[in-house]
Specification:
Blueprint lengths: L2 H55 L23 H12 L2 E6 L2 E6 L2 H12 L1
Antiparallel strand pairs: 1-2
Length: about 120
């Protein structure tokens, strides 16, 4: 086979295949992005329902400051955490719920409340 014909046939095959492949992929991407919208909406609805259910199950917990995802209330603790907790206790009371990262904590900020918590858990 001469070199000219082999190169010509390779180019013809590339020219025939490439446009159809690009067009097909482009259409698939357009349809794929439209088809993804219901799944994204479903994911958002499930997240909202899940959050409302967790609020209902955590209603027995004492009040506390608003939490951020992943870090919880760590951003509210300053260089001197005891002073930050004292300020938060003035706002939320002597017994409050906080999340330090993924760890759920109950903070007791008064001597009377500490005695009550200990007494109720021992008896």
């Amino acid at each position: 086979m001469p070199d000219d014909m082999s190169n010509g046939s390779k180019n013809d095959i590339v020219n025939l295949v490439t446009p159809s492949m690009l067009t097909g992929n482009k259409r698939r991407n357009e349809r794929g992005s439209i088809n993804d919208i219901p799944f994204i909406l479903l994911f958002i609805v499930i997240k909202i329902i899940g959050r409302s259910k967790t609020k209902q199950t955590n209603s027995k917990l004492p009040p506390g400051p608003r939490k951020l995802p992943l870090i919880g209330n760590i951003h509210q603790l300053e260089a001197l955490p005891h002073q930050s907790l004292a300020k938060l206790a003035q706002q939320y009371g002597p017994l409050m719920h906080m999340r330090l990262g993924e760890i759920s904590c109950i903070v007791v900020s008064s001597q009377e409340m500490a005695k009550e918590v200990i007494y109720k858990n021992l008896v």
